[in-house]
């Protein structure tokens, strides 16, 4: 817990630096592009908590957290089944998780034909090892990735970059 408190203090300092460097006049209001929020998928609760805090400090408040690709996939599948699913604007997923990793989660969305309804940011401590895995089925799906550990400024840059990219929405049909 002491570690988390120290990291929050660092986030506060980074936030002040980040906000002081913003050009308020020319900056596009990208937060208004978030209609359905951000989904964070990470099995490390400290990492999820800190990412949520970083995103809150950057002005993004509609955030859902799931602890593994398996739980995130079942959440989405149940929302579709109940006809209440609204695709997240951005899904931030770790790749290295015990039950279902990030790439496997993305493959499941692909199998349901809803992969192209989201923007993705892949985070991992081992992105270099994953290049072969990512070059296969997903090709251009993941245009942004961050190596752990990362700074709030980097996360903010990637979120803004993702929000500038269009999403191809299609009708969603639930298949058991």
Secondary structure elements and their pairing?
Blueprint: H1 2-20, E1 38-41, H2 45-57, E2 63-66, H3 69-81, E3 90-94, H4 102-111, E4 119-124, H5 127-135, E5 144-147, H6 152-163
Parallel strand pairs: 1-2, 1-3, 3-4, 4-5
Helix pairs in contact: 1-2, 3-4
Summarize the entry for a quick read.
The protein is an alpha/beta fold and 176 residues long. It has helices at 2-20, 45-57, 69-81, 102-111, 127-135, 152-163, and strands at 38-41, 63-66, 90-94, 119-124, 144-147.
Describe the fold and architecture.
By secondary structure, this protein is α/β, with parallel strands linked by helices. It contains six helices and five strands. The protein has a single domain (2-14, 34-163), classed as Response regulator (Rossmann fold, 3-Layer(aba) Sandwich). It has helices at residues 2-20, 45-57, 69-81, 102-111, 127-135, 152-163; strands at 38-41, 63-66, 90-94, 119-124, 144-147. It has a five-stranded parallel beta sheet with strand order 2-1-3-4-5. Helix 1 runs parallel beside helix 2 (45-57). The longest helix is centred in the N-terminal third of the chain and has 19 residues, at 2-20. Residues 20-27, 136-140 and 170-176 have low confidence and may be disordered.
